[in-house]
Amino acid sequence: MKFDFTEEQKSMMEVGRDFAEKEILPTQEQDEKSHHFRKETFKKMAELGFFGCVIPEKYGGNETGHLCAALLTEEIGRVSASWTLPFNMQMWGPAFTILNYGNEEQKEKYIPALVNGDVIGAFAITEPNSGSDVAGMGTTATETDDGYILNGQKMWISNAQTADMSLVYAYTDKAKKHKGISCFLVNMKNNPGIKTAAIETKLGLFCAPTGEIAFEDAKIPKSALLGQKGEGFKICMWQLNNTRLGCAARGVGIARGCHEHAIKYALERTQFGQPIAEFEMIQDQLALMYVEYEAARLLVLKAAYEKDQGNIGNTLSVSTAKYYAAEAAVNASGLAMKVFGSYGYSSEYPVERFFRDAKSLQTVEGTSNIQKVIIARAILSK
Amino acid sequence: MNIVVCVKRVPDTETKIKIGGEGTKIDPAGVEFIISPFDEFAVEEAIRVKEKLGKGEITILSLGSADAQTIMRKAYAMGADKGVHLNDPSECQDTLAEAQALAAALKGMQFDLLLFGKQAVDYDNGAVGVQVAKLLNIPVVTRIIKLDVADGKAIVERESDMGKEIVEVKLPAAFTAEKGLNEPRYPKLMDIMKAKKKPLEEKPAQLEAPKLSIVKMDYPPARPPGKIVGEGEEAVPALVNLLKNEAKAL
Q1: What is the pLDDT of residue B224?
Q2: Distance between CA B57 and CA A380 in Å, rounded?
Q3: Residue A275's beta-bridge partner residues?
Q4: pLDDT tens column, B135-156
Q5: How close is the nearest chain A Cα to the Cα of B245, in Å?
Q6: Helix (H, G, I), strand (E, B), or coil: what is residue B198?
Q7: pLDDT confidence of residue B226
């Protein structure tokens, strides 16, 4: 077993780190305040190939792999959790799912454009009355002679209001329960039956758009169906097992950002005539943050490595990483706030942002409870 | 258009330097190494010239230990085509000996532009570029902030305390890059992957016995503690007095 990164991986981490510090950090404060998704930042990430890691060269990708994508996500997440979302919204979500389930026409139409940033992607699963219970969704796709008609509502959809295309999960046959769900590739623009609205009431991730989508007799063509009819639930679970890796890597980035800021502050801040880093209780907090960051990172790297070896369906590893990284990020942000004292409570310092952003990880793409269910089922059936 | 860019591997500018066991070298343990930032401007400029002309070949030349190849690959990922590594396990720091080794290698290479950073950010001598140009008997313009190439000549800008200079120089010529020349690009992931496949020739550096050696390294003296002279208006005369007579800042 080798723990060393290759020179190429190190170079990619350096690019991610430089990009975060030079392209995201300088405008972060104003963008966070104005909830601004900076399109040019997104485009630059795409041009560097950030969204092509797990995509073959044939479709505009660079085949650097899941491990590289996870490392990049961590480097970006260390500065901004918001700006890690495009890895999922472009690559691990739509593009990689189309690569696995799409026909050649769909692959050529969508994957290169998602990778190069010409098309902004999304995936729509959650609804007002269905979150963890995916099969409880109410959105329907009624087949007609020339296509499908979508009706229903999706909630908490990243990029809802900015996306050009979205994977949309909907029932084509309610009677078949979860085997009646299908997945569609839906063009989000210029469809009179699709309305979107931004959700402005969220706690964090302010530079990553979130919204709701209403489908009201939205007509889509037959060619929009991804995979087979009734295969949607399977596709959804497959997709989540990839996007969760992105969430987990985001958690690692947050945990690292928190402990780096906390160490710097603890060494600079003086109380009772000495840097607070000299106090054992502060050391306890710093040590805990470090341990959990390291553990979360190793879990993420292991899950990413397995995917690169061809084991894409590694749900136990991914859910373990996602659960632990989410908890580690939340813990790290809480501990960092304690180290920072009242400055931790201030929006002038980054840790309160990490604190708000980290909380999303216990909910998105399968709550921490759902991850534990997946983990328990897997280890009990071994 | 053939362009050669000389690059040096140096400790990251954010690294806290530790002096090694014998007291004459930097302890490399835990140190991140990078292309010297001024050399990176030179690499970027070479790529821009090639892109603008739509043709040309960029060769990276680096003198140093085997680890120098890592930063050469970074220049490859940015867009350089090939490179020559002059292996020097001793990591010689005598600029004249370094310049002689580089010049010896350059004598066997065809180039129109020879680019350097204005100085390496490790020892900050700022000497090698000029010394190489002298040894090759070609013109050199230092600390350039703009470079235009056409019709066998280059028009470059450089800034000095006196103002801006615009210099026209016949090629082949050497140039040393100043901050402001350009903003280096981030390598694309695909180009990082392709970099390992680009040709890299390794040969021993022809180093003469250095005439300069580092006898001892020392840390800068600790800064003396600050002085609070008082508060409010009453403190002003004492503060002015200290600024004038002690700090000699006024």
Answers
A1: 80
A2: 61
A3: A270
A4: 999 999 999 999 999 989 999 9
A5: 31
A6: coil
A7: 81
* Pair of tokens at residue A76: 């970006």
Q: Which residues of A touch B77 (CB under 8 A)?
A: 11
Residue B116 has phi, psi (to 5 degrees) of -135, 165
| Catalytic residue list contains A32 | no
Confidence of residue B16 (pLDDT cuts 50, 70, 90): confident
- Structure confidence at residue A43 (pLDDT): 98
- What would the two tokens of residue B186 be? 């981030």
| A63 vs B: CB within 8 A | yes
pLDDT value at B162 more than 90: no
Among partner residues A7, A18, A52, which is closest to B189 by beta-carbon distance?
A52
Place of tokens 């010409």: A118
In the predicted model, is pLDDT for residue B239 greater than 80? yes
Q: Quick one: tokens of A291?
A: 């341990």
Do residues A229 and A179 touch, judged by C-beta distance below 8 A? no
* B193 inside 8 A of chain A by CB: yes
Q: Which residues of A touch B186 (CB under 8 A)?
A: 15, 18-19, 48
**Across the interface, do A11 and B192 touch by the CB < 8 Å criterion?**
yes
Q: pLDDT at residue B250 above 90?
A: no
pLDDT over 90 (residue B210): no
What are the percentages of helix, strand and coil residues in chain A, rounded to 5? 60, 15, 25
Contact yes or no for B125/B132 (Cβ under 8 A): no
pLDDT bin (cut points 50, 70, 90) of residue B231 is confident
Which residues fall within 8 angstroms of residue B134, CB to CB, at 6 or more apart? B99, B140
With a cut of 50, which residues of chain A have pLDDT below it? Answer: none
The whole-angstrom distance between B30's CA and the closest CA on chain A is 14
Q: What is the pLDDT of residue B28?
A: 87
Query: What are the E-state strand segments in chain A?
Result: 123-124, 140-143, 147-158, 165-171, 181-187, 194-198, 210-221, 225-226, 270-271, 274-275
* A:B CB pairs within 8 Å: 43
Q: How many CB atoms lie within 10 A of CB B146?
A: 16
pLDDT for A163 equals 98
What are the angstrom distances between the C-alpha of B124 and each of A204, A256, B61? 45, 33, 19
- Residue type at B24? T
Cis-peptide, bond into residue B204, ω within 30° of zero: no
Query: What is residue A334's predicted lDDT score, i.e. its pLDDT?
Result: 97
What b/e sequence results for B99-115 when a residue is b if at least 16 CB atoms lie within 10 Å of its CB, and e otherwise? bbbbbbbbeeeebbbbb
Contact status of A8 with chain B (Cβ, < 8 Å)? yes
Report how far residue A88's alpha carbon sits from residue A246's, in angstroms, rounded to the nearest whole number. 6
* Angle (CA) A324 A327 A330, round 5°: 150
